[in-house]
Amino acid sequence: MPRRRIGFWYRFAAVICKPPLVVLLRRDWRGMEHIPAEGGFITAVNHNSHVDPFAYAHFQYNTGRVPRFLAKSGLFKKGFVGAAMRGTGQIPVYRESTDALSAFRAAIDAVDRGECVAFYPEGTLTRDPDGWPMTAKTGAARVALQTKCPVIPVAQWGCNELLPPYAKKPNLLPRKTHRVLAGPPVDLARFYDREMTAELLKEATEVIMAAVTAQLELIRGEKAPETPYDPRRERIEQRRRTQAQTQTHQEAGQTVQEEGLGK
User: What keywords would UniProt list here (predicted)?
Assistant: First the structure.
């Protein structure tokens, strides 16, 4: 299927966004040859800064295949931002939906129309202390298995040095470098034509994230942790630590009280 034209709104957004990005960030972009020239596909991208959606969109805009991001439906409703979101073909996600597949129906339709849909599989900024990709949600895998489209793993690094996760002020100097490395399509063929169970989606998601992490290892020249950071597991461990500390304090207080009564 032929690719969709970039269109007025995306070109207009590029005119607004590209100049500050060029000023703030050097570019070290590699792997553009892996971005399909035609047909629908998915990119799976790591997320480590509030700036990186703009910088990554710049990278892919320059390939001629503009990304369609999934975004909160509220952004589409009114005003200039809403008009821009609709005009650039971004994909609204209705959080009130209880059907996981219907929540991604627009993404599936976009891929079927020959679009690129860019996923941040982690769903939010990474919480890994060293900036590595953490465990991911299964939306990208669900769309990929439903459409059997190519999944391009993409790693990026540098925007997090300009604006670290959850930071309020950017580090403007020295000028940072936005590094992007797109890899070859992830082989998901072994998951095709199988029942789309939670376990299957989890396994396919892990394969996708392993490919993204491998690209980031090449960019950083370091090895990622063997086990990705898991926010859910960390919350459970934090609750256990809090409960243990509370129990220790209670026991210590009881001991002091008993010693006082003994005197």
Answer: Acyltransferase, Transferase
**How far apart are the C-alpha atoms of 56 and 47, rounded to whole Å?**
10
For residues 153 and 213, give the distance between their C-alpha atoms in angstroms, rounded to a whole number.
Answer: 9
Mean pLDDT in consecutive groups of 10 residues from the start of the chain, 263 residues: 71 92 97 96 97 96 93 80 86 65 79 95 94 96 96 98 94 97 98 96 98 98 96 78 64 60 57
Q: Are 106 and 116 in contact (CB under 8 A)?
A: no
DSSP state string for 39-73: S-EEEEE----TTHHHHHHHHHHTTT--EEEEEEG
Kindly state the greatest CA–CA separation across the chain: 87
User: Phi, psi at residue 89, to the nearest 5°?
Assistant: 75, 25
Edge-to-edge strands, sheet with 116-119: 25-30, 176-182, 151-157, 41-45, 116-119, 67-72, 91-93
